[in-house]
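Checklist before submission:
- one chain only
- standard amino acids only
- sequence pasted in full

Submission:
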Amino acid sequence: MKEQKPQNYPLKVDCVWQNSSLLGEGPVWAQNQRVLYWLDIKNNRVFCFHVDSGKKESQNVESLISCLALGRNGGLVAATTDGVGYFDFATGKVAIKNSFTTEPANNRPNDGKCDPWGNLWLGSMDDGESKATGNLYRIAGDGSMEQILNGVVICNGLGWSPDGTTFYFTDSVNRQILAFDHDPHGEPLQNRRVFAQIDQEHGYPDGLAVDIEGGVWSAHWDGWRVTRYTPSGGVDRIIKMPVPRPTSCAFGGDDLMDLYITSASIGLDKQQLAQAPLSGSLFCHRPGIAGLRVGDYSG
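Returned file contents:
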């Protein structure tokens, strides 16, 4: 669906962690710790933001980590260039459980998220961002991997509707958010359709989050915005960002009423960075709508 004129809302965005991360990504809220984890993919760093105290921690990691998820039995699950495993923030090490043996040499993992049934869905991409070699996998708790989609340049933001019957998937290069009928117990994805087509002037859709009303919040790389789409695909709200490259978003806080937004500084020249000095920082917005709780990995 083409973009429509959204309703007008007073939208305030706060910078909660001023940072110059190259490719800030992958925000994940850990309720039991009351912290938000996020990444700088290109600098091999993981960040931990303690929302109550404002304390900020970071950790170097041995290899690229593209996304994080919560484990059902505690801990953090990380997708790395070596595979998927549990991540120890204190040491920066990942204990690999699943290796990627079928991925092309030019590919790397990208965005991922757990579904309500405990499976980790993980996309890959061509690191040169030009070849359609990306794949989408569903990784079960027992470690078995199933290829769900292929032939994508950049597999990006994903999520599920509140009732779990619709799956959203971002095809960034084609500026599309796709929707599928989702069946966790049968053929996982059917009835592929375009949920939202993003105009060129509004950038590329990147990471996304879903709220309890079924609204889809999408960060627009090179669009200076985060957009909320209604369940029917219409544009409802636009958060105007102080940075051109917001990358992803996730709901957090006790009531899941805080929308955290990551951003990137990679590829921006001196003039662009002077215009947007907060590029690479972490932001927060209170939309007045609670987020949908994200699933935990059952492995």
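Reviewer check: The two ends are 37 Å apart (CA to CA).
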